[in-house]
């Protein structure tokens, strides 16, 4: 029995596990299942809320009344933090990577509507974002507030709990549907979801391989990042875990032009899945990972999902990221 640290009930859980019925993959007669984590909420949809249930609970335990976090201009995590802060009566300050647009849309529009304060850093300035966060904490403290800094994606030893807990949920899903999946597939950008799945699959003895498709950085980065987070997790929570048995497998080759920038093949598969299943992906995370999954399945035994019969895709949300890139879809 896993003893969880303090946790807030913020997400609509459990989310469904659904089989794709009409989307077809050439040469594949197995099944693709989707863990519908885009249904964790409406405005706060996606995977970030699972991690924030633990991160914000920790902030409240520490007596904080403000949250500082960071990410890209269209960050799903920052949007989720801004909205949850408004719901819980906490001040939120976002440090966003990129230039301030003339007209905010997508996630950024929701950040503004939620009342979050926003600081913008250029790509060149981004390396200083942690120092900026420390200075903001000092300023908040001088004004009588206490602010917790939550790293990008809430991906640290606290945020790991989000998808450790999700593995307990997945174990019940597999029992309910009477399946033993070969692979669980996810997008990975800051490593927290991937890390939680890797740790949780071991803790709950899930007979499944975890495979992540990176949307930035490379496999070596995620190997180091997740192992560092796991080490801190073990120390903070006095957990026993055989780190030598952790398989951190990141499938490269699907980042495309860069983080937040997708090739036409990603927009095509987003549209195809929407038409066939009424299921919507985004071009930053889920679209790239889903495209990568389909491509690797089509390679058969030569691919990195060889032997797949049942594959579970973690839908980590991101719908609002579609709107700023709508010009990349073609309509008849």
Automatic annotation (TrEMBL):
Active site (record annotation): 75
Keywords from the named record: Pyridoxal phosphate
MF annotations from Gene Ontology: D-cysteine desulfhydrase activity
Superkingdom of the source species: Bacteria
Listed cofactors: pyridoxal 5'-phosphate
SUPFAM superfamilies: Tryptophan synthase beta subunit-like PLP-dependent enzymes (SSF53686)
Positions where N6-(pyridoxal phosphate)lysine occurs in the chain: 48
Domain called Tryptophan synthase beta chain-like PALP: residue spans: 9-317
PANTHER family: 1-AMINOCYCLOPROPANE-1-CARBOXYLATE DEAMINASE-RELATED (PTHR43780:SF2)
Similarity comment: family membership: Belongs to the ACC deaminase/D-cysteine desulfhydrase family.
Protein name: D-cysteine desulfhydrase
């Amino acid at each position: 029995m896993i003893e969880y640290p303090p946790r807030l009930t913020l997400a609509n859980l459990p989310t469904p596990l659904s089989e794709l019925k009409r989307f077809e993959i050439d040469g594949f007669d197995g099944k693709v299942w989707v863990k519908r984590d885009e249904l964790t909420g409406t405005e706060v949809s996606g995977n970030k809320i699972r991690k924030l249930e633990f991160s914000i609970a920790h902030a409240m335990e520490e007596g904080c009344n403000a949250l500082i976090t960071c990410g890209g201009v269209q960050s799903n995590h920052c949007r989720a933090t801004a909205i949850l802060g408004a719901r819980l009566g906490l001040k939120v300050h976002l440090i966003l990577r990129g230039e301030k647009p003339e007209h905010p849309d997508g996630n950024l529009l929701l950040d503004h509507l939620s009342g979050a304060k926003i600081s913008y850093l250029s790509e060149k300035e981004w390396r200083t974002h942690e120092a900026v966060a420390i200075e903001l904490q000092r300023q908040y403290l001088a004004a009588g507030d206490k602010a917790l800094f939550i790293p990008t994606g809430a991906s640290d030893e606290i945020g790991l709990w989000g998808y450790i807990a999700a593995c307990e949920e997945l174990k019940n899903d597999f029992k309910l549907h009477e399946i033993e999946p070969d692979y669980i597939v996810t997008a990975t950008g800051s490593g927290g979801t991937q890390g939680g799945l890797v740790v949780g699959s071991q803790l709950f003895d899930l007979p499944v391989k975890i495979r992540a498709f990176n949307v930035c950085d490379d496999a070596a980065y995620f190997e180091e990042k997740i192992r560092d987070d796991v080490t801190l997790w073990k120390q903070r929570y006095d957990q026993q875990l055989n780190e030598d048995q952790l398989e951190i497998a990141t499938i490269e080759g699907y980042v495309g032009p860069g983080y937040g920038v997708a090739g036409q093949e990603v927009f095509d598969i987003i549209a195809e899945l929407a038409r066939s299943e009424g299921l919507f992906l985004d071009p930053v995370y889920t679209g790239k990972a889903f495209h990568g999954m389909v491509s690797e399945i089509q390679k058969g035994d030569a691919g990195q999902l060889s032997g797949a019969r049942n594959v579970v895709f973690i839908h980590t949300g991101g719908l609002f990221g579609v709107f700023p890139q709508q010009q990349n879809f073609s309509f008849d």
